[in-house]
Design a protein that fits this description.
Number of strands: 5
Helix content: 25-40%
Amino acid sequence: MTKRILCFGDSNTWGFSPADGQRMDHRWTRLLNTAGTLDAEILEEGLNSRNAVCRDHHMPEKCGYDAWKMMLLSHKPLPLDAVVLMLGTNDLKSTYHCSARYIANGLREYVREWMNPTLYEGTKQPQLLVVSPILLGDNLADLEGEGGGFNRYSMEQSRLLWEELQAALAPYPVTLLNAADFAEASSLDGLHMDEENHARLAAAIGSTLQEMLADSPENPDHDA
């Protein structure tokens, strides 16, 4: 039976091109089925500028947490086999001045909501893969300038996020992956991946999902 995988993230899930701002065809979500032996229906839920926890009063719909529960519910009655969650980059913007620990603790709330059994009545609970995003590029603060969206503090916290995320989610039954081990931001904008890095990330996520789904029983009933 074909697996169903929901991918929930920001512009690096949407496929924003660092070269021209258009949506790339060869984005990691579309490459998952070609990166290995994964054969799945991929449900893409990427949104440009989506935050993990911070709320932009000009665009409140960009807060991912507000949409998280809805996304977990919206594909019923067909079950989801796995969910890939990759957020946190936009919370590093200078306007929010968030620490890596604050962002990681915010992502922990996504995990707690995912564990809510009422979301899966009549179906099964999907497995959850939480991906720590790629690092902000070394040149990003210079590209942005003094009045830009990211600064030196943003870059420092970017490098701490993986460690903080591991600590925040240690007690929970999720799988973790560090995107920065496999991919990096383009030097063109210091923020978004090019096609080569999308392919690398797709291979890493695809391999991890294969292992996760191979270990899961077929269509178990979720005990609510």
